[in-house]
Amino acid sequence: xxxxxxxxxxxxxxxxxxxxxxxxVRELLDxxxxxxxxxxxxxxxxxxxxxxxxxPDPSMQQQVQQKLAEMQKRITTYEEEQQGPLAVKGRVIRxxxxxxxxxxxxxxxxxxxxxxxxxxxxxxxVTNTAQYTEKTNTQGIPVxxxxxxxxxxxxxxxxxxxYPEGLAxxxxxxxxxxxxxxxxTPNKDKPFIIRTGEVETxxxxxxxxxxxxxxxxxxxxxxxxKVGVSRTKGTERKELAYLTPGRRVSWNRQTDAVxxxxxxxxxxxxxxxxxLIFNEQPMExxxxxxxxxxxxxxxxxxxxxxxxxxxxxxxxEESVEGVVDMLSFVGKFNYQLSxxxxxxxxxxxxx
Length: 351
Prior knowledge:
By secondary structure, this protein is an alpha+beta fold.
């Protein structure tokens, strides 16, 4: 039910409600839950606008002013309605506060392309460092970090995690680029949210793995608890999956295709311990994982060698040569290590 209410308030904030939906908004904001949800949406939008400010465009000026005027007019109309003969004592003040808050915030969103961008240019690198904590794993096995709320994060090679100092706020929001396993400390009053571009993974307390490398499908796999995965594009919010233990979802950024499947929970536990696990994966995908883990580059002598599918499990102590040697036997391909041991060339047998 909350998701439908979120969408309704999204439409209200952007001015796309029908008359019937306007009435639903009135009823929703008469409750404490509705007002809290509105506050939450505003905070989420503010963080998105602050983290990803748009470039200024002088041609926007007139449109911005027009939209602000329209929003203020809509709010004024609501205020007049609330002051009618059926108004309940105390209700007028509350509604005026809510709608003025909405007007100010909506104005802030529309002006992010101008004022926020300009102010953002003036913020120093020191200020940015003070606001966010950043963890990066450049190479090797997953590195364990403990967040301020005691949540454990196992950050994969080639990955970066950012979060507000102290995880301040009513939600625990972290930003992930790459891949990580999360063992989230339960807190029913403060959801834990992982943002990877336009996709959001939301939990209260559970353990799961998120993989979100550029150029590859985003994947979320759950070991314990329940996880909701959604995509937000503008004001549109789409639920991708609601996962339970042993389930995973894959989302293709290019095609918007969503695929759900089973996953072995034991494999997720092995992954955070540093094991490499491949299940019928194309060698091109495996090579990208090995590059991040070991730093060695891969070259393919032909297209067929990219598509060879391989399986295998390897301990953290295994060398890249040992992994490739075993995979070459499984996938029936040849490989050659460069003289400086910086590159490995893969060639399908018989080519």
